[in-house]
Amino acid sequence: MPTSTGINRLTGKPLNDWDHVVQSLQVIFTTGIGVRVMRRTFGSMAPQMLGRPLTDTTILKFLAAIVMAIDLWEPRFRVVQVVPSGTPDGMRAGKIKLDMVGQYRPNALLGDFTPAPTPMTIRL
Fold first, then answer.
1. Where in the chain are the domains?
2. pLDDT 10s per residue in the chain (124 long)?
3. Which long-range CB contacts under 8 A does 103-110 form with residues at least 24 apart?
4. Are 104 and 76 in contact (CB under 8 A)?
5. Of 1, 40, 67, 101, which is the most buried if we count CB atoms within 10 A?
């Protein structure tokens, strides 16, 4: 039986468990703070950072914004490690890939923060 259920925002079909968490994280990452009228504090600072020069400082601020937003808005996922990847040419072009490895906590919405046995990864 699924521990969390939602609706796929693109297809309208049901989403369960990890797929629902991934969609929720995508919504958090792409929603700027102050954008939602009835939930002004929802979202992350990540959208405001897009288009800035790809420096160490910018990358660190971006990572901090993402991790803080996950901590605030998605209790079912806890970031354990962020692994940047990508080619040097891609980075020079301003493209970087991030793998976020973390604990999936399927019952966190019920107050049980016990992680699933296998770490999960999200690629940004």
1. 5-123
2. 667 888 999 999 999 899 999 999 999 999 999 888 888 889 999 888 888 877 788 888 888 999 999 999 999 999 999 887 777 777 777 777 888 999 999 999 889 999 999 999 988 8
3. 103/77, 103/78, 104/18, 104/21, 104/76, 104/77, 105/75, 105/76, 105/77, 105/78, 106/3, 106/4, 106/17, 106/18, 106/76, 107/3, 108/75, 108/76, 109/3, 109/4, 109/75, 109/76, 110/3
4. yes
5. 67
CATH class of 5-123: alpha beta
Cα separation, 23 vs 32, whole angstroms: 16
Which parts of 34-116 fold into alpha helices (H)?
A: 46-49, 56-73, 88-92
| Helix segments in 7-87, DSSP class H | 17-30, 46-49, 56-73
Q: Tokens 């990452």 — which residue?
A: 29
Q: What is the pTM of this model?
A: 0.84
Question: How far apart, in whole angstroms, are the C-alpha atoms of residue 100 and residue 35?
Answer: 25
